[in-house]
Design goal:
The structure holds 4 protein chains of 4 kinds. By secondary structure, chain B is an alpha/beta fold. Chain B contains 13 helices and 12 strands. Chain B has an 8-stranded mixed sheet with strand order 6-7-8-3-9-10-12-11, sandwiched between helices. Chain B has a 4-stranded antiparallel sheet with strand order 2-1-4-5. Chain B is globular, with a radius of gyration of 21 Å. By secondary structure, chain C is mainly alpha-helical. Chain C has 2 domains: about 100 residues, no CATH class; about 220 residues, MetI-like (MetI-like fold, Orthogonal Bundle), CATH 1.10.3720. Chain C contains 14 helices and 4 strands. In chain C, helix 5 packs antiparallel against helix 6 and helix 6 packs across helix 8. The longest helix of chain C has about 35 residues. The radius of gyration of chain C is 24 Å and the shape is globular. By secondary structure, chain D is mainly alpha-helical. In chain D, helix 5 runs antiparallel to helix 6, helix 9 runs antiparallel to helix 10 and helix 11 runs antiparallel to helix 13. Chain D is elongated. Chain D starts with 14 loop residues before the first helix and ends in a 7-residue tail after the last helix. Classes of the chains: A alpha+beta, B alpha/beta, C mainly alpha, D mainly alpha. Chains in contact: A-C, A-D, B-C, B-D, C-D. At the A-C interface, helix 6 and helix 13 of A face helix 2, helix 3, helix 5, helix 12 and helix 13 of C.
């Protein structure tokens, strides 16, 4: 509902996957481990406002928290991120279904993984190369398998047709199957899988952490409906799932899972229960009280009104909640995309950026609880790829205060050769976003720019703004990388082939530089390229970065460990436990 | 109208009855010091215009005025008991039993949701413990008496399946089913067709003879009065302005208002197309009854009274003959002169 | 009578057909492209087209309507020509690709909380509304009457969401008399069920009872002034018989109409109350579907709700004929 | 047997009195005697004046609903600084969470929007309800049937759901039709949908009245004298309808105030930076366990508004038809 429930918490940022890398950006480190020793057994509760998971089908999951949850419980992937609160360690990978993190040959264009012995599906049948290959092939059936990441399509060495689509149409039609079978091959014993890529991808072993590359037994594939009864390869399996308010998903132990084959997952609890559709206030109240079952419950957000109760400051938890609450930089960058097709004049775009009161926007979002001022789309916790863009210091001609500078904006408009523009601001409606819109309208108004708010129902939001005919000049957005490489940011946001190019940005030089950076094998050189491209995009004011987001979370009294897993900006589900009594 | 010899009081004796309703707009004096009396087997007609207080008088006698909403004062002696002072439960036992009432509009006086048979037996059961079967027999017999054809069959019909006249017969049956000694009929024929009116009046008279009932007939139809009444009380502005025997009222009227009423009756000898002689002006509002004589604003003869007593003094009820009383400031001689003048002009009314 | 019912049912069906058509035309105007919503990231024009086809949105509105109507009777297969068709069995109210579920199943799932809410509130408000209304009528003009009418005025002047939020603020947050509402089935955990439903029942009941107090009082006053009540008193019936048998029967008849229609309306989902108390009923399903632009669900709920109301109209009319012998169904 | 011809008029205690005075005068006299109603009427007039002159009042107090006061909110979490939502001399009713906008000013501007929508929608409802009711009742036959079915159709719709679902698209259509973009379109949308879902109730009442009035002698007389249809409808019938219409209108206005607030609460209200009662209450949900004044200030004002409207409506009805209402 529009105003009373704040919509899905997951959807607040947008349908973006997330992962954040290394480095102690923002100086936040309130992460603490929950007290007590892990106990085997018990039930862990996952309380959520969402009425269902966006997707359960492994090839269609594309939300950070969901990837972490399902990867940790039912879908094994070739490689996976280490569990650690440490930003560097927590985003490094280990072998999971594969014995190690894979071997690259052919300059990073061919990748080989060996599948572990003893890995089985929930029916006891062994996981083979064919199952991984079949799972991967499902991504190509774009008319059935929607919503998931499409890296398999863009990276595997399969020709594209004239219209830009892959010549392989997925396993259901079988059209172009031979092309896929050439790109993904299995050894005779079915233990080794080889991916032949169309270009060097130095970090392809990070790509396969996505459940889009998880194994699916062909015999069990029901296409569109596979998510209703997916086959588990992890320590748990879905016993029941009922979506909607009052509904729940119950995961029970998968007795065919052999711990000896999986040193990655701890699998402490006997049961996981996801309670759907709870009011956000109810979730907060239950976790604050932490009585009964709620002692081993977790959720992934706190309402602003409770922040003062739980935290002393954005980096310090009140003693009462010590060991139960975290406040960390999340993987996301919040920004306003400027539709360059509709605002082609750079000076006007600069004027909009200069006029915007980012200070008020941040305050409205929760002040320092909401994060730090952003200067680009690459976040400091991305590590090597981050460098200050100088957006607010030099890129706009002079230093711009966080509260904006209407006078400078007016000068820029005067220099643009155009009249002060009238623009429309698209945003997903919520009470907080309504206030943010008011701030946008007011602060741009001070520079003579007429802004009109255009609230869109949250569930319809990306459906509208991705439609070039329906998107307006200024578009609210947020993005987090898919793995620790800005190759999952810059190309996605700023090139016509990217999946999240809300700005409709299409600059030939820029596109060419992106293609070069993508295949650069030297990570340090590549990082410098991403930094430059980030700065270039900011100089072109393709987006106005507003905030490097920070988030707060709370759990019950008897659950651990309590830290934000840097890999997905999520809970470390696979090693969570009920505290021993 | 003195009491009969064998009793101190008449069978029903109303004296100085007043009913006042306090409303938002002020106190409504619906009945103001009304007195009359009636014996068993006799018929008293109360005549007057709408709003003159005759219906309220009847309801006050029946104890149907809600004492929460109204002040009732005076005395109503019914068979020796004062009904005004009587508690509600006592009144209830009398109502529908020793005294009964039928109303003006038979269309709305019967409960639309219940079969008429049930409504009749309910009246029986309210006062007597009788078996279902015998209550039913009595009801059917009563329906037969009031002239409902095939009463056993119609027993189970709903009111809306009857015509207006038939419904009034059912009402009469219901009123008389416990053989009351007093029947008050409040404009029983006003809502009915002219042809049916006569039948109903005849029916009432007939049953009155059979049960030796005292009947108070409330009407504005002087024609009926002439036919069936023994005594007549003329009401105007919440008061009885003249009362007496039928002959007194029709042949020796004393009060200008009574004259006006008589004058407005269409007569056989009237020239067709001649307009009736209405009394000029409108009846007074019970909220603001005129001071002095209530009729004074409309009285054309007040110039025959010396001084302003008509406007200032309430005329007393004055005996002008055996049982003939009148409230008027006109001197007796003037009254006679005025009456003769009018009656001669009109010709004597046909009876 | 049976001829009447047949005629009413026919006109009811016509009305429903008209309604579905209007709903279809209205919703075909909506801005969000449902095909795009299920398309996700990495959406290409041809995927979009395929989705549109799968959902049947590539057809003209009238044909979509025809497909929908056909689905109601013979079921429907979405994306029949694709490798993984979705079967929706008759009666098919549509299929939500957003939720991956048949609309009818979704509605059936969400109906129980709505029914509990509606029934509980219904009995509360009828009991409170009618008894206080009668009481006020019998004490007309006195302080009891004025008090009841004051309560009624307050009741229907309070916006439901304000009342609901205040209930949560005082009862749940400040006094902590009840836990935060969190719906469970009464068969699963009756105590939590009652703890959850108590406030929504009371809030809804207050809103409706306010109206029924007034309605009952005015009805009773009107009936108490009717001639047949005077007749009943003149018969010497005890006052309680006059009130209970004669006045109530006639006075409460119109209330049957109002109550039937109000109950039917509530069965379609109390949007605001369900939202505030986060009850997983039809109302909150409706609001969520509006937010998600989940057209098949919105259309389905609209139709189901309208059907409730139209059927309730018929039932109330039939009931009326049973209660009031004057009413003849022709 | 014959009747006395001079007797005429309704047989009620006050009948003759009523006939002797003009109805309008009586109604006014009765209203003036109702002290509570007069107080409410006074409050209502005051509220309308406050709404009309909201900018002036805000100007005098030095507050306005749009400007942000970053000083008044905390940088940690965005909550208001100080107790009771940041009530201070600068901000008499406190400030909004996250922006520091003045609640008092928002309240006044919200009142403006509430009254604008409710009043206009009531006028439209009364207009359509009356016209269609008269046509339906007077014309009868097919016209009556068509209007009747339309009413059935409208009344069968779950109107809250439809209003929610259609707000986006219909607002855009209005903009396309030339209504200024943004709030003018949204407000127009609300007014139109409220009227569309409101008129059938009044039309039914009016139709019933017309049917009974039509049968009365004076209308028959007019028809017999060959009066034009227009004359009959508007000179003979309409004047007999004003009592029920007036009662309906006075009781509809508060309903619309409430409905508008509910719709804003659900998110179909005016656009930021403007806000209305429902919007303010909707915003309060996230914060009221910490700052209850966010809930109570707009809530109480809304209730006062609706209660006074209802009291005046009741009083008008009582004055017009003393039997129906309070004693």
């Amino acid at each position: 509902m529009g105003k009373a429930n704040k919509g899905l918490r997951l959807a607040a940022v947008g349908a973006v996957a997330a992962l954040a890398l290394a480095a102690c950006g923002g100086g936040s480190s309130s992460s603490t481990s929950g007290g007590g020793e892990p106990a085997k057994g018990g039930t862990l509760y996952y309380l959520t406002n969402a009425e269902q998971f966006d997707q359960i089908d492994p090839q269609r999951i594309y939300t950070g928290e969901d990837l972490a949850f399902f990867n940790g419980t039912i879908y094994r992937t070739l490689t996976a991120y280490k569990f650690s609160p440490d930003a560097a360690e927590g985003t490094s990978i280990v072998g999971d279904l594969a014995t190690d993190t894979g071997t690259a040959t052919n300059g990073g264009q061919t990748w080989e993984f060996t599948i572990r012995d003893g890995a089985t599906f929930q029916d006891g049948s062994p996981v083979t190369c064919a199952d991984v290959a079949y799972g991967t092939s499902r991504t190509f059936a774009t008319d059935v398998i929607t919503g998931g990441p499409t890296y398999a399509i863009s990276m595997l060495d399969i020709p594209t047709l004239e219209d830009g689509s892959s010549a392989y149409k997925g396993p259901y039609t079988g059209e172009g199957q031979e092309l896929f079978d050439k790109a993904v091959t299995c050894s005779a014993d079915g233990k080794t899988i080889t991916f032949n890529l169309s270009r060097p991808v130095p970090d392809f072993n990070y790509t396969v952490t996505l459940t889009a590359f998880a194994p699916v037994p062909k015999a069990s594939d029901t296409g569109e409906k596979y998510g209703d009864a997916p086959v588990s390869s992890g320590p748990y399996k879905i016993e029941s799932n009922k979506n909607g308010k009052g509904g729940k998903m119950v995961l029970v132990r998968n007795d065919k899972w052999d711990p000896a084959s999986d040193d990655y997952r701890k699998a402490y609890p006997d049961t996981w229960q996801v309670d759907y559709g709870l009011d956000v206030k109810v979730i907060d109240q239950r976790l604050l009280a932490s009585s009964g079952n709620d002692a081993t419950a977790l959720a992934n957000g706190v309402e602003p009104e409770q922040l003062g109760v739980i935290f002393k400051s954005p980096t310090e938890v009140n003693p009462e909640f010590a060991g139960r609450a975290i406040s960390e930089l999340d993987p996301y960058v919040r920004y306003l995309a400027i539709n360059v097709q509709k605002v082609p004049n750079l000076k006007i775009r600069q004027a909009i950026a200069v006029a915007l009161d980012r200070d008020a926007l941040r305050k409205n979002a929760g002040g320092d609880f909401a994060g730090d001022y952003a200067d680009g789309v690459i976040k400091p916790n991305m590590g090597v790829d981050y460098a200050p863009s100088g957006m607010w210091e030099t890129l706009l001609g002079e230093k711009v205060a966080d509260a904006g500078n209407p006078e400078l904006a007016k000068k820029l408009i005067a220099a643009s050769g155009e009249a002060a523009p009238t623009i429309t601001f698209d945003y997903p409606q919520s009470p907080t976003a309504d206030k943010a819109a008011a701030i946008v309208v007011d602060s741009l108004g001070k520079a003579g720019i007429t802004a009109k708010p255009n609230p869109i129902e949250p569930g319809q939001y990306y459906g509208v703004v991705f439609d070039p005919e329906k998107a307006h000049e200024l578009i609210n957005a947020g993005w987090g990388p898919d793995w620790p490489n800005a190759s999952t940011i810059i190309p996605e946001l700023f090139t016509p082939t990217g999946g999240f190019n809300l700005s409709q940005y299409d600059n030939a030089d820029f596109n060419a530089a992106v293609e070069t950076a993508k295949i650069e094998p030297d990570r340090a050189k590549q990082a410098k390229m991403w930094q430059d491209l980030n700065t270039k995009a900011m100089a072109d004011v393709v987006v106005i970065p507003t905030r490097f987001g920070r988030e707060q979370r709370l759990v019950g009294k008897q659950i651990g460990p309590v830290y934000l897993w840097p890999a997905y900006g999520s809970w470390p589900y696979a090693e969570m436990y009920a505290v021993q009594q | 109208m003195a009491g009969k010899a064998n009793s101190q009081r008449a069978f029903l004796e109303v004296s100085d009855l007043s009913v006042q309703f306090p409303t938002e707009d002020g106190i409504v004096r619906a009945v103001d010091g009304v007195s009359f009396a009636i014996e068993r087997g006799k018929t008293l007609a109360i005549v007057g215009e709408s709003g003159s207080g005759k219906s309220v008088t009847a309801q006050a006698v029946m104890g149907l005025i809600n004492k929460r909403n109204a002040d009732v004062s005076g005395e109503v002696f019914f068979d020796g008991e004062d009904l005004v002072a009587m508690p509600e439960e006592g009144l209830r036992k009398l109502r529908g039993n020793k005294m009964a009432m039928i109303f003006q509009d038979p269309m709305s006086s019967l409960h639309p949701f219940y079969r008429i048979g049930d409504q009749l037996t309910e009246a029986v059961n309210a006062h007597e413990k009788v078996s279902k079967a015998s209550a039913r027999d009595r009801a059917i017999e009563m329906l037969h008496k009031v002239g409902i054809p095939a009463p056993a069959k119609r027993f189970d019909d709903y009111p809306h399946q009857f015509s207006g006249g038939m419904r009034q017969r059912v009402m009469i049956a219901m009123a008389l089913i416990n053989s009351p000694s007093l029947l008050i009929a409040d404009e029983p024929t006003t809502a009915l067709d002219v042809t049916v009116q006569a039948q109903i009046i005849e029916l009432i008279s007939q049953l009155q003879r059979e049960f030796d009932t005292a009947v108070i007939l409330i009407t504005h139809d002087l024609g009926i009065v002439a036919d069936v009444a023994d005594e007549v009380a003329v009401m105007y502005g919440a008061r009885v302005v003249e009362s007496g025997s039928v002959d007194d009222i029709f042949y020796h009227p004393q009060m200008p208002y009574t004259l006006g009423l008589l004058a407005s009756i269409p007569r056989l000898n009237q020239v067709p197309g001649d307009r009736l002689d209405p009394i000029p002006g409108n009846p007074p509002s019970p909220l603001r009854l005129p001071t002095g004589c209530v009729f004074n604003p409309r009285c054309v003869y007040q110039d025959r009274v010396t001084g302003d007593v008509c406007q200032t003094q309430r005329p007393a009820l004055e005996d002008v003959g055996a049982g003939h009383q009148v409230r008027c400031h006109l001197p007796a001689t003037e009254r006679q002169a005025v009456a003769d003048l009018t009656l001669n002009l009109l010709g004597r009314p046909s009876r | 009578m049976s001829a009447y019912v047949v005629r009413r049912v026919i006109s009811m069906i016509i009305l429903l057909l008209l309604l579905t058509l209007v709903v279809f035309i209205l919703f075909s105007l909506l801005p969000a492209d449902p095909a795009r919503l299920t398309c996700g990231k990495g959406c290409t024009p041809e995927v979009l087209e395929a989705n549109r086809h799968k959902l049947g949105f590539d057809l003209p509105v009238i044909q979509q309507y025809w497909e929908f109507m056909k689905g109601l009777f013979v079921g429907r297969i979405y994306a029949a020509d694709s490798p993984s068709p979705v079967v929706c069995n008759a009666p098919c109210l549509g299929y939500s690709f957003k939720r991956g579920e048949e609309v009818l199943v979704l509605i059936k799932d969400r109906l129980p909380p709505t029914i509990w809410l509606a029934l509980g509130a219904f009995f509360l408000w009828l009991a409170a509304g009618i008894s206080l209304g009668i009481y006020a009528a019998l004490r007309r003009g006195r302080w009891q009457d004025k008090t009841v009418m004051g309560i009624s005025l307050a009741g229907y002047s309070l916006p439901s969401f304000f009342l609901g939020l205040m209930a949560i603020f005082f009862i749940v947050i400040r006094l902590q008399l009840l836990p935060y509402p969190s719906y469970v089935s009464p068969f699963e955990n009756p105590i939590q069920f009652f703890q959850t439903m108590l406030l929504p029942w009371i809030v809804l009941a207050i809103l409706y009872a306010a109206f029924y107090m007034r309605l009952t009082r005015n009805q009773m006053l009107e009936v108490l002034g009717d001639d047949y009540i005077r007749t009943a008193r003149a018969k010497g019936l005890p006052e309680r018989v006059v009130i209970r048998k004669h006045a109530l029967r006639a006075g409460l008849t119109p209330i049957v109409t109002a109550a039937g229609l109000d109950l039917a309306g509530l069965l379609g989902g109390a949007i605001i109350t369900e939202s505030i108390f986060s009850l997983p009923g039809l109302g909150s399903l409706a609001v969520n579907s509006v937010n998600d632009a989940d057209l098949p669900v919105i259309v389905g709920i609209t139709l189901v709700t309208a059907t409730f109301i139209i059927v309730a109209n018929l039932i109330v009319d039939l009931l009326y004929a049973v209660i009031d012998p004057r009413v003849r169904l022709v | 047997m014959v009747k006395v011809a001079l007797i005429d008029g309704p047989d009620s205690l006050t009948g003759s009195e009523v006939a002797s005075r003009s109805l309008r005068k009586i109604v006014w006299t009765r209203l003036r005697r109702d002290k509570l109603a007069m107080v409410c009427l006074f409050i209502l007039i005051a509220l309308y004046l406050i709404a009309i002159f909201a900018p002036v009042i805000c100007g005098l107090l030095g507050v306005d609903p749009y400007s942000f006061d970053k000083e008044s909110i905390s940088d940690s979490g965005g909550g208001p600084v100080g107790t009771w939502g940041g009530i201070s001399t600068e901000h008499p009713l406190g400030v909004e969470w996250g922006t520091g906008r003045d609640i008092f000013a928002q309240l006044l501007y919200g009142l403006r929007i509430s009254l604008l929508i409710a009043t206009t929608a009531t006028i439209l409802t009364v207009f359509f309800g009356t016209v269609l009711g008269i046509i339906s009742g007077y014309a009868g036959g097919k016209t009556d049937a068509v209007i009747g079915r339309t009413m059935d159709l409208i009344l069968a719709f779950p109107f809250l759901l439809i209003i929610l679902a259609m707000s986006g698209v219909l607002t855009q259509r209005l903009t396309a039709l030339g209504v200024p973009d943004g709030n003018p379109s949204r407000i127009t949308y609300l007014i139109i949908v409220l009227s569309i879902f409101g008129w059938p109730y009044l039309a039914r009442i009016v139709r019933g009245q017309v049917l009974s009035v039509r049968e009365r002698e004076f209308v028959e007389a007019s028809i017999a004298m060959g009066a034009s249809r227009y004359r009959i409808l508007f000179k003979e019938i309409l004047p007999n309808l004003w009592a029920p219409i007036l009662v309906y209108a006075t009781l509809t206005l508060p309903t619309y105030v409430g409905t508008e607030a509910a719709l804003s609460f659900l998110g179909v209200g005016v656009l930021p930076p403007d806000t209305s009662f429902g919007g303010m209450l909707g915003n309060s949900v996230s914060y009221f366990s910490v700052v209850p004044s966010y809930l109570f200030i707009p809530g109480v004002v809304l209730v006062v508004l609706v209660v006074t409207f209802n009291l005046v409506g009741d009083a008008v009805r009582d004055a017009l038809d003393p039997r129906a209402g309070r004693v």
